[in-house]
Amino acid sequence: MVMEGREFNIDKMKNFSEWYNTVIYAADLVDNRYNVQGFIVHKPWSMYVFKKLYRLFEAELEKDGHKPTSFPTVIPEENFEIEKEHAEGFTPNVFWITEKGNEKLKRKLALRPTSETAMYQMYSLWIRSYTDLPLKLYQSCTVFRNESETNPFFRGREFMWIEAHDVFATEEEARKQIVKDMRISTKVLNENLGIACLFFQRPKWDTFPGAEHTYATDVMMPDGKTLQVASTHYLGQNFAKAFSIRFKDRDGNDLHAYQTCYGPGIWRIMAAIISTHGDNKGLIFPPAVAPIDIVIIPILKSGKNNENVIKKCHEIKEILKEYRVEVDERDKTPGFKYSEWELKGVPFRIEIGEKEVSENKATIVPRDVKQRLQIKIDELKNEIEKQKKEMTDRLREKSQSYLNSHIKNAESLDEIKKILDEGSYARVNFHSIDADGKECADILQYETKGGKVRGILIGKNEEPFGSKKCVICGKPAKHVVYIARQY
Amino acid sequence: MVMEGREFNIDKMKNFSEWYNTVIYAADLVDNRYNVQGFIVHKPWSMYVFKKLYRLFEAELEKDGHKPTSFPTVIPEENFEIEKEHAEGFTPNVFWITEKGNEKLKRKLALRPTSETAMYQMYSLWIRSYTDLPLKLYQSCTVFRNESETNPFFRGREFMWIEAHDVFATEEEARKQIVKDMRISTKVLNENLGIACLFFQRPKWDTFPGAEHTYATDVMMPDGKTLQVASTHYLGQNFAKAFSIRFKDRDGNDLHAYQTCYGPGIWRIMAAIISTHGDNKGLIFPPAVAPIDIVIIPILKSGKNNENVIKKCHEIKEILKEYRVEVDERDKTPGFKYSEWELKGVPFRIEIGEKEVSENKATIVPRDVKQRLQIKIDELKNEIEKQKKEMTDRLREKSQSYLNSHIKNAESLDEIKKILDEGSYARVNFHSIDADGKECADILQYETKGGKVRGILIGKNEEPFGSKKCVICGKPAKHVVYIARQY
User: Fold this and answer.
1) What is the ipTM metric for this complex?
2) Are residues A106 and A247 in the same domain?
3) Domain containing residue A137
4) For residues A184 and A61, is the Cβ–Cβ distance under 8 A?
5) Rounded CA gap, A82 and A245, in Å?
6) Could you tell me the mean pLDDT of each successive run of 10 residues in chain A, 487 residues long?
7) Cβ separation of B121 and A35 shorter than 8 Å?
8) By the number of CB atoms within 10 A of the CB, which of A381, B302, B322, B378 ranks highest?
9) What is the CATH classification number for the domain harbouring A309?
10) Residues of A with Cβ-Cβ distance to B146 under 8 angstroms
């Protein structure tokens, strides 16, 4: 799928699906020819990014007091029977291990679809007293679900994520953790990766199986559909009661604990990075996670001795050794190389030719804008650091202003349909996000061909506007909600 | 399993098995109460170490030109049928996935026991020309085998490792890679972790299923038994032929490639760290992978205002902020804290009391020796860096001299038995490590209750000594081999 000699050029905004499903192979991120459907091979160009992405989240989680753990990939069937709603939500899509060698297993083992039922039985052994709380652990791993439709980084039968499972003595502390989790998502997604997000409290009917409430982070894709990239579930005491996670408080009372779990969807965040920042020429990786930071391209004159140019390229690589830098010395034209590294999304290209050598300068070309900077070699290191920050800022501003201009108020079904079809989120007055709003949500989804109530913005207390009546049933609206089709 | 108020004290050399099976729980590395036999839960205290250990190896692999990849955890049954020897070696212990939800799968999927059969079918798609070679990829993952006997970090049904799978155009390059792999093992195990190792070419009958030769790294455990912690398999063209990994050379000839695979056993290296360096008081983590580098313990006087002592502890933590440092302010005696952090293997303890505050000094106590160093606060940072290096050197020298003094020549079965029983390796003249030596090896193993031929030292060309006759059959010996019981 390498585009030998052909320039990548697909209109991302007009043909997003074609763009995405071409660029992930053309840029050599994955191979989908593995012989189990829905399972893919991650190639080095995506793995460098995943490793950095994991580290960004792990660092933030650890700063927030989480510690690393690793639980078995397999979970006995009986564990799923403990929390009924959770079991109903997950067991239909579980892969089951039933044999070892030629022997039948006495009981089936699930490939973990998520780890509540693996972890909480151990939590009930570890937690005895209020002094054992809070307990905040995370694991970086893959999970397995028999999804019917799959697409790399959006939805797969095995995908990468982090799951953090926290236990608290009080509801108040548990609720505070939700805000902390949102801050971690904001820090990484928005500050480090330059992706604009919305944070929603999901409606009751769209809550994680077994949870009381779900809080989630949505990113708008170029086609206006929305992608959930992270979520925190407030579990209340549901699992604590099912798995007997109890502790003695200061006064010796035996109490059930309160729990939250937080899942940054590492795979989906990759989809968000690709889709948000890429352009018609290919990928644009934000500097925080780029597989390589800089590619240096020697501009050689045919028939001449270009030794000094090649030498200068390697000198610059040495000057920039704290970055991941590659000198592209292949026997190809500069134009071919420019296109290929643009397709692959490297943040900065440095061009070195006779002119740069004689002036002791480097020409820097950032991937995201039409700009060519002449920088003195001894200012190069500082300049790259500055440019990294500026590129991240530009990407963030672009993403934010796109999102801002694609949220539109609607007061009727027709308006909602029109807004969704043009690729925006519709902002509407809505009856309720509790169970009694479900009927309106079903009508809305049917009438708008998939428009879903994503929930209310967290911490904004948005007041109904205009008529202040539910856009579907016409009753007084309790909430302002956002409608989008979803991935 | 925390040793509330009781000092850990078990004679490691006399009762190694008891020591090991107590310390891993007492120091809170793992929990073995997970409800699937042979699968364990990794707690934070081991996970910090595993994360560092993975990064050490990944950095060395990348320096050597390997790139990261991630393949699916599941492998279809049919893939195992492609290389017959390999299949026979692995399928008896494979866990099989046979159902998804309530449905039967059309074909069984294995939980990967190792990834040759997953990766090489893709390699055959990726490799077309000599310009695609060498191809050097690694993945950090867990693998699954239905082992009958399990013990944390020695042998488990799911365990952590890295597998690097390399493809070359020529046998010569492939053979060179074996040496490079050994260098990576030496760098991490010996230089970074201070563990003395021996590098063996294994006898023919102890070769990886499907490989031509196996080269392996052994570490001596305190009971004299040996633990294989890493191995490189020279696959020749066996898998290339089975999986059709072919390339066109410069002249357009269609050729089969040559392959190697290298597996640093991350889990087993943890077992080696624990067993090699620990002492009767508990664990000793080498500074390169310690979960925390330094614990600061305030020495408080009861009934006094100790504010200045606590303040100084936090000042020092700030000075040493590039390290992972913990100030232990718990309401426990210093003696209790000393024992606990010694048990947990933290490399350096810093004690701060009135005296240290008034003299603007810190008392540093390295975990591995009876030493108390008074260091001026403004020299502390440099001193810690120096001390880290010195501790690693001490650990390495101790490990090396123990190994050196526990290798003994033997010229009869009786001598071998005596040497193995006293906890040493026996060094003997041996008929052959090719297939024709197997009979002697079987006799030796039977007669010595498990003594195994570990192979010949790599790159040493050791000449037979004394009688120069095979210690078993009395025929002229081709090799000097090492005999040990094994984990």
Assistant:
1) 0.96
2) yes
3) 46-277
4) yes
5) 13
6) 67 97 97 97 98 98 98 96 88 95 95 97 98 98 96 98 98 98 98 98 94 97 97 97 97 98 98 98 98 97 89 97 96 95 98 96 97 96 97 98 98 97 97 95 97 96 96 96 97
7) yes
8) A381
9) 3.40.50.800
10) 100-101
